[in-house]
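Q: Could you fold this chain for me?
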Amino acid sequence: MPDTFAAIAAITVPASHERAPLLGDGRYQHDAGGVFRELYKAHGPVAPVLLPGRVPAWLTLDHQTLRRVTEDTATFARNTLRWRLGPLLPPDWPLWPMLGGGQAHDCLLYAEGEAHRQRAGALSAALDAVDRDEFAARCQHISEHLLAHVAPTGAAELMADYALKVPVLAMSGALGVPDEDSRDLPADFAAMLSSGPEAIGGRQRARKVVERLIARVRRRPGADVASRLAEHPLALNDQQLAEDLLVTYIAGHITTAYLIGNTARLMLTGDRFTDTLRRGRLSVSDAMHEVRWSDTPTQVFAGRITSRVTELGNYRIPAGDLVLLGLAAANTDPTLHADPAAGVRDCRAYLSYSHGPHSCPRPARDLSEVMASTAIEVLLDALPGLSLACHDSELRWAPTIWMRGLLALPVQFTPTSLSLGHPKGLPWM
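A: Sure. Below is the predicted structure, expressed as C-alpha cells.
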C-alpha cells in the first residue's frame, strides 16, 4: 500500500482530524502496534484517524471501549448507509469492498436488528452442520499433500505454498466450490484487503465464483454449506445468498491463513515456543492462543456508524461518523496485562473475533480453529528440522489496513519424502 493517496475533493477534513495519521501508510505497515500505542497515549481510548483519500474516521484503542461500541448497537449501528460521508465517496474507492459499498451492502454484516439475527442464525446453522470429523480429515488430507510437493526440496515458502492454500481448499470443500474454481481466490481476497487499485476487481472475480456456486446449488443441491443456506426457510434471494457466502469465504480463508502464518512464525522464532518443534512443553494450541492476543490476524475491523451525537473516550463524535474497531489495540490494552509475568495463556478475553451480536459466529470460529491447528500440526510432523530461512527482521507484512499477515515465510528443513499417493480432488496444488 503506498504512503500517500489523492485526497477526495468532496471530503472536508474536520479540525479534529487535521493531524490524524493515515491508516495504511509506511509507518503503519512497519509497526501498527507502535501506532496504536502512540495514539492511545495522545488521545486515550478513541483516536481520530484517516483512511485513504483523507477520509476521516475514529478508531477504538482499548478493550472496554470496543466492548461498549459493539454491544450498544442502537448508538453504534452497522448499516453503512447511515454513514454521512458515504454519498461523497466515488464508487471505485478501494475501501468500499471492506465497508459495504455497492453489492457488498446487502450482506448479513450490514444488516441490523431482527434481519441480522435471522441471517446470522441461518449461516450459523449451515456452518454448524459441517461434520467436524470429516472436515478435520479433509484439512489433514490437504495439508499432507501440499507438503508432499515441497518435502523433497528442503525449502519452502510457507505462505504461498501452504498457509494460503490450506484454508481456501478446506473452505471450498465445505461450501461446495469445486477446487479448480478456488485457484485464484487467495490473490483476489488479498487484493480486496489491500485497499489498493485491484480491490474492487478482486471482489468482482471472487463474487463470480460464488455466483457459479449458487447457480449450481439452485439446480442440484448437495450436502454443503451453500446448499443448506439456499434451502433455509429464510429464503434468501441470489443477491443475499451471494453476499453472505462471499463474506464467509473471505473471513474463513484469510484470517485462518494469517493465523497459520503468524503462529508458525511465533513457533519458529519465539524463545518460549522453539521447544515445541521438538515436542516440548508448549503446544500448538498455546501458540495460537498467544497469537490471538499479541499478533491477531484481524487488526482493525470496519466498522460502526454513530446514530446520534455521542461521547466516546475524550471526544464528542457527530452522528453519522464511522467508528473502526481496533481489535489488535484492544488485545494489547495494558490494563488487561497488569502482570506481564502471568502471561495470557489461561485468559480467553481476547477480541480477535470481535464482540457482541455482530461477532464471528461460533461455528465459524470452530472451523477456523480446526483448519489452523491441523495445518500447523501436520507441518511440524512432516518437515524435520524446520527452521526460518531468514532473520525474523527480514520478514515483511501484507500491505493492508485491516489485517496482519506475512507476505512470505521462507523456511528450510531436512529433505524428506512423504508417500501419500495421488492428491485426488486437489488438481491445482
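A (continued): Strands lie at 46-51, 55-60, 76-77, 155-157, 300-306, 310-312, 315-317, 322-326, 387-388, 410-412.
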